[in-house]
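FAQ: What does the model actually see?

It sees only this:
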Amino acid sequence: MHGKKILYLFDIDGTLLHAHRAGRDAFDAVFEARHGIAGASEGVRYGGKTDPAIVEEIFVARLGRRPDADERAAFLDAYLPLLRARLAVTGVDVLPGVRETLAYLREREVPLGIATGNIRRGADEKLAAAELGAWFELGGYGCDSAIRAELVARAIERARERHDVMEVVVVGDTTHDIAAARACKATVCAVATGSDARDLLAGADAVFDAMTELPAWHAARFA
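And it is asked to produce this:
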């Protein structure tokens, strides 16, 4: 494919892989070390949220206040080595059809990017653990913005610096991914392999039970 491009932006957790609670456990460990409260994120839903927003939600729930910018930055700096250590122990599961779908799109010269609530270094750790990092040339991350629609927009901006983008397709597993894609006027595919049940994903342009279904959808839409 030459000229105008179709850009795909993929969420990570629940869409590309499962990390066996590595991020949640690392967040809890940091909060316990700094504030003496164990299991601080109990009851907090992580799916589709950005890392900075999750930190704020935990602070409000357990300390009754929001973190300031320095506290949030220090928290996330402390989180990274703990995430890396947990990933080394638990590993990650790459979800069915992911590698085949990425290969299918790459063969068609489709630019591939990431749109995730993970901060950049956390995203890189998870993708490295899954041996998926080499597939993606750009991204938007939780460190770009705590607001998901803004980080998706940043990923699109980065792609437009490299490519003449005709259409953007966001692929995610939560209603947050759908809302962010809509805010950016992107097409959105939802995959029911993450935290939100299939019936909650009905607002997407397509809903898949697994990533194995995406190549056929792509072929039908863009042939």
